[in-house]
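DATA CLASS: polypeptide
GOAL: derive structure tokens

***
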Amino acid sequence: MPASTTVPARPHPLAAAARVVMLALVAVLTLLATHDVRQLWWIVLLAIAGLPALLAPQHRLLGPLSRVAEVVLLGLAASQVGAVATVSAQLGGLGASAVLPYLAVPVTVTALRRRFREGAALLAVTAATLLVSGAFTEVDGVRQLAQPGYLAVCAQWLILAALGLHAASTLHRVMRVRTDGEPQPYAEATRLLTQLRTVARQLPGATLDPGGISEHLLEELRTVTRTDRGAVLSASGGGRLVVLAQIGVERVDWETTLDADSAIADAWASQQPHTAARSQSRSHTGGDVSALIVPLVAGVRTVGLVVLETDAAHAYPPPVVSRVTALTSPAALRLEAALLFDEVRSLATNEERQRLAREIHDGVAQELVMVGYGIDNALATVHDDAEETAESLRLLRQEVTRVITELRLSLFELRSEVDRHGGLAAAIAEYARTVGASGGLRVHLSLDESTARLPAATEAELLRIAQEAVTNARKHAGAANLWVTCEVDPPYAQIEVSDDGHGIGDQRVDGHYGLAIMAERAERIRGRLEIRPRQPSGTTVAVVVGSSPRRDNVRDSAAPAEGE
């Protein structure tokens, strides 16, 4: 035999195991659907038809002919099993779904061997076989082609197989592009990315980040007027403002309530600059102060406020106000673009998260529950002397229960978000309690959150970082205790998650995918991520945004931190 047609002497162990598992699954489903042992002959025939493809996968004739025989037998078996299955008469033919999962075997083989045309031909043969056999098979005098259940099940599995084949073909093309140099799609992508980079560099501050634009604006204002402290504020939920950026030696607890009697509230409502002879912070100790509050108006909408203060009287006469507004007017449009971009990104992320949650709940989770019920039924009917079979089914049931638990936790994580009224600390605490309870962890909480709020995008990223850290501790640490500390004092925030598990050997961020994701999220909000060992055992993950607070007497008199 020529070298080009030489076949391996032994089948690949993984391929053999996959076929055995699929045949066993189809056999169990067929028994559950028909309660007729004679229908297992179809499974035996499928196993025999697949032997040549398994033993000689590289052969030019045996492999394809064996796979064609498999799909023909599969179509005949689906029609026969659907005809004798004990299902509802209104949707007859649903029993075909007990056999059709085996369609994944020949189609997957063709996809792995990059024979996508052969895979498409197999799907066409399968569809033709299902139509022909359905036309000649009757159930209670009704042809199967007239039964909506039969047609729906056949269409479902054919479409799933076609989508899998198309996905494999697309992945193959992408990988081939990656290895073949610089073909046209990558050249076009390079051109578009180059244009986007050029446009971004022309933006003042070279960013669409609200915090970066605000910092750039404050630095510009420092060059035209005296400023001992300043801040850029933007609207948040609940009629409050959030601090996007601030300058000054000391941190300032700015007034962020729009319904208060303050120059900040007046400037927001009137869309006109205001000056005041008192500080706009809630923690100022007194003395001569001049304050200038300039609204950032884009069109007819107020998108933010600039607050400038200096420790001197009458420091902002009309000429200074004019110079400041000359800089803030164009900055309002830049800030609005950044805030809109941030909002659209947040909405898209939330919508995608909800979509994934719905798909998991309505798809995989429901299917796994049905598999669990099927296994329960099999356990109830197994003979007393089949101890090995019963034990295997019990283990499979345990695995299904574990997967369902993981899916429910994933759904909870996807649906978790910072409530407008509850705040970041409450969201983190709820997640830690729920996940800790599911993993048998004792959770210790230390929460200290001021009434002021961080920007919504910053809160969302901090919540996701905390979720990833808590999930890592539950899944991988082998811990008994979990300590979660949340301190929020805008624009400063620190989240710390510690466990008493066995720790991680490689604490480099690039050594773990989850740690890399947390690092990217921290960088996105200009935060600092730190992963360090905890003594005497365990790991601590901490993220810090902003500078450390320097609390004054007003803050020192606040209530102690909440703990659990």
Summary: Residues 1-9, 507-511, 550-564 have pLDDT under 50 and may be disordered.
